[in-house]
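Aim 2 progress update. The chain analyzed this quarter is reproduced below.
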Amino acid sequence: MVKILFVLLTSSFALLTSSTVQAEYVASPSSFTVGAGYQYGGVLGARYHFQHDSHVFSAALGLVGGALGYQYFVDESQSHSFGLSLGSEALTSEDGFAVINYEYYPSGFAQSGWQFGVSAGLRREDEGGSFGDHGDTKTDPAAMISVGYKF
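Predicted structure tokens:
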């Protein structure tokens, strides 16, 4: 699962930063956020955003995992968004997680500033931990508060 996630994150990052995608959406800004939470790949990570209108696609690499995400802004000031994050992190969900997110940007997404959010969903983990698939894989609820800074 970790190898598949790494390939997906690498290819997504390459696609999002390619000149053909940037040329097609000239008015669509891209940005980086550093923070903690599932949408940042776990404990601490960096997230690359690509925005098109009210839609934001992201790829994140963290110290212990990675994630792919989607957000949709529900207001004109782009302060409130709902989204989905899929990924894996080595501490509590090495077999993957899927969470829905609510994120709040006090200054609006177009400006630099803080991001606060909550995530809830499911995570999968086996008894062997990060170093091997031993024992049963169990699915548990996942919940996390996120905080980050957007540049």
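The longest helix spans residues 2-17. The chain is about 15% helix and 55% strand. These observations will guide the mutagenesis experiments scheduled for the next reporting period.
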